[in-house]
Write a structure and sequence with these properties.
This protein is α+β, with helices and mostly antiparallel strands and 162 residues long. The chain has a domain of 70 residues: Alpha-Beta Plaits (2-Layer Sandwich), CATH 3.30.70. The protein is built from six helices and four strands. It has a four-stranded antiparallel beta sheet, covered by helices on one side.
Length: 162
């Protein structure tokens, strides 16, 4: 019983909706040829002329006609003399390449580098972190490698100029 009442209410609402849509469409057809007042206004020419007088240099340049031309020379050479007096020389850094990258080995590595008071930079790239050491002493690097071997961390050193 409730099912039939629900279906009948929905069908009545659908019929009312269709009636409203058809009446709106019928009224819209009657106003198809209606043109609003602002569309009939033909007094737009003076405003365009005042805009033309206040052109910026970009707009003025954009109005110039395009010209096809060929450069006078086939070869063009540009000489640039840069002042390199303030540029610094490249510094020598070392990159530690570590065999394993688990939490324990990274902890031991950081503690060892901190104990030697070495400036270092850890960079996570891909699966393995990259470790750069800011020191010029190869003896210090060898001591760090020996200390890391105590923790069973095998490392290699690569010299980098940055």
């Amino acid at each position: 019983m409730k099912k039939y009442i629900t279906i009948s209410i929905l069908s009545i609402l659908l019929l009312i909706l269709l009636a409203v849509v058809f009446t709106l469409l019928w009224q819209f057809k009657a106003n198809v040829n209606f043109i609003p007042q602002f569309a009939k206004d033909t007094n737009t020419q003076p405003s365009i002329q005042t805009q033309n007088q206040d052109l910026s240099w970009q707009e003025e340049l954009a109005k110039w006609p395009t010209r096809d031309f060929t450069p006078a020379a086939e070869k063009f050479t540009l000489y640039f003399d840069a002042d390199t007096s303030e540029l610094k020389e490249k510094n020598k850094y070392y990159q530690l390449i570590v065999g394993k990258y688990d939490i324990y080995s990274m902890f031991c590595l950081r503690q060892t580098l901190n104990s030697f008071n070495v400036k270092y930079f850890l960079l996570k790239s891909g699966d393995s972190p990259e470790i750069f050491l800011d020191t010029g002493s190869e003896k210090l690097i060898d001591d760090i490698i020996k200390e890391l071997k105590k923790y069973k961390i095998n490392t290699e050193v690569k010299e980098i100029w940055l």
